Amino acid sequence: MTEQPYSIPRFVAMMLLAFAGLAACVHFLNESSIQSITRAQALSSAEHLSRRIATEVADLENILAGQNPSNQSQQQLRAVAMTEDMVKFNLYNKQGDSVLRLDKSGQDPNPNTPLKHHNPDVLEALTDGQAKSVIKEATNDGTSGSDVLVEAYVPVVQAGRTLGIISVYVDQTQLDSRLRSQL
Hints:
alpha+beta; elongated; five-stranded antiparallel beta sheet
């Protein structure tokens, strides 16, 4: 049995392949970390908004039943809509029917779409009292590229009862950029 002579080109090729694999792993871990952090932050924001709505909106049960909000509730809901990193929110009853949608302008941005058509797996998870987030890429006005939006769904709970579901679109562009610059 004769020993093969040491091959420098083969060794270099193997090392380059190993470095490429390592770089791919680091990139994957960084991307996974960024997504996990932005999702967690969006869920935290959505949970905060859900608690605010549950405690500050007096006629919440009536709104979820399809009635128009009182003047006081309209003001409170507009204040919620002005939250810094929130783009818009949708309020759904327990059956997943959209009852209220507000953006920062205080207007209903789109026609109502039942959650069972928009995102049926979320409706199923939320009826069990679980929260869920979905990362979405959305193009803004075209001047500054792509925004990172996280749509977070959380139950609206009042006195231990799940009354409905809130879907909050949270702008995570700044957080995403900050994390990418640090990693």
